[in-house]
Amino acid sequence: MAESVKDQVVAIIAEQAILEVADINMDATLEDLGIDSLGLVESIFAIEEAFDISVPFNANDPSASEFDISSVTSIIGAVENLVAEQKG
Amino acid sequence: MHRVVITGQGTINALGADVAQTLDAFKAGRCGIGELDIRDVDRLAIRIGGQVKNYDPNAEFNRQQISLYDRFTQFSLLAAREAIAQSGLTFSDQLAAQAGVVLGTAGGGMNTQDENYRAVYEDGKNRVHPFVVPKLMNNAAAAHLSMQYNLKGPSFTVATACASSNHAMGLAFQFVRSGMTKAMVTGGSESMLCFGGVKAWEGLRVMSKDACRPFSANRNGMVQGEGAAIFVFEEYEHAKARGAVILAEVIGFAMSSDAADIVMPSKQGAARAISGALIDAGLNASDVGYINAHGTGTAANDKTECAAVADVFGAHADRLMMSSTKSMHGHVIGGTGAIELLACIMALREGVVAPTINYDEPDPECALDVVPNEARDAPVNVALSNAFAFGGMNAVLALRKAS
């Protein structure tokens, strides 16, 4: 299950960044990957659709949202938690 | 070049059913934002808005009219009735031949679209009312105004998202200033507080779930409103000759495009529109006493707008007042500039500056006098009204106290 969440999130981020999955560094920030504010909102939408979850996120202050977007790894962890909470 | 004055104003919005009620709310710092009362609200994440409440269309319009008037058209007609009555103008002969109506709206008949898409997609109906198209079209409100008041000159609708009504009023100003007409009816209207309208905005993740707090450090997004404001713009000598009450003078207008990003605002684009309006009006920066801000309550707009004002006004930025009345009536999208012009006219006529309510914490990136929480008595001779839209389209009007 955890592996699958990771793979799907990385695939979503790779698509937004127009990169190969293999080129996504787990410690990278979205900014490092060239994903801007619109790309971020689209990524979150894609995650919500893929996992059928609701992600708490307000673009006015991304850092204050409960959803940690500071790196690819943190996003995967946050999605795993949300899946466990909302689908568990 | 002819002087252009405002001889009529009318409105309906979350703060009131007319200008008097709206100005009372501005003076009291009253908030018109509350829980949305719309179908399927339980399926929305955003459940607040500046909704026009206690409004019964059947009390204002007959059944045939309602079959043709979307809510945004109804609001336009009600606001126009007040404005044109106040102006005392009757449009006939040469005046009617030249005068037109230019309105701003972003969504047009959004409620009509929402209801009829629901009918065919969700309810599975295969038939819709015959007037869906003339009811939802963006120019419907302008068209009905032209018909009702015999306005036979140039009439159309401007759609530049959140700057629509400032663009509309700016064009009406230019028409009268150029001498092509003695009067224009202008303003804007919006009504997208329906399930689809709010759901679409929700998707962008820029909406606040609890309040609109422009310039406050704890702001967390915009809140949508609805309503209309309509004005009569008239050539000064024409107004003077008939003894009309002059509410304010429109003295300048400028537009600019960021040519940069579809949603992120640009300081340079905003600054060019503000300084352009000063140049068009022949003003020095130090002449300006009040700015009605675009002030959406989003992180991006408010800091960018403050930076643009600081750039244009220099040291004078710390002496002028700038408030966002969106904190009270919500962001009325294509109609917002028109409703906000009421606050500019109030400042010029009555020397009362509408506040930015819900202001809790100073933000160093918005370090201007935002007239926090309480209206202020202060003489104002010149006011600006800012509008900076998605798409990077900016429009700023300059007004002077009637003399």
Automatic annotation (TrEMBL), chain A:
InterPro entries: ACP-like_sf, PP-bd_ACP, Ppantetheine_attach_site. PROSITE patterns: CARRIER (PS50075), PHOSPHOPANTETHEINE (PS00012). Keywords: Phosphopantetheine, Phosphoprotein. It comes from the Bacteria. Residues 1-83 form the Carrier domain. It holds the Pfam family PP-binding. This is Acyl carrier protein.
TrEMBL record, chain B:
Proposed to synthesize NOD factor fatty acyl chain. Involved in the synthesis of a highly unsaturated fatty acid moiety, which forms part of a lipo-oligosaccharide that is responsible for host specificity. It is found in: Cell inner membrane. It comes from the Bacteria. PANTHER family: 3-OXOACYL-[ACYL-CARRIER-PROTEIN] SYNTHASE, POLYKETIDE SYNTHASE-RELATED. Belongs to the thiolase-like superfamily. Beta-ketoacyl-ACP synthases family. One of its GO terms (biological process) is fatty acid biosynthetic process. Gene3D superfamilies: 3.40.47.10. It holds the Pfam family Ketoacyl-synt_C. NCBIfam families: PRK07314.1. Its main location: membrane. GO terms for cellular component: plasma membrane. Keywords: Cell inner membrane, Cell membrane, Membrane, Nodulation, Transferase, Transmembrane, Transmembrane helix. It comes from Litoreibacter meonggei. Residues 1-401 form the Ketosynthase family 3 (KS3) domain. One of its GO terms (molecular function) is 3-oxoacyl-[acyl-carrier-protein] synthase activity. InterPro entries: Beta-ketoacyl_synthase, Ketoacyl_synth_AS, Ketoacyl_synth_C, Ketoacyl_synth_N, PKS_Beta-ketoAc_synthase_dom, Thiolase-like. This is Nodulation protein E.
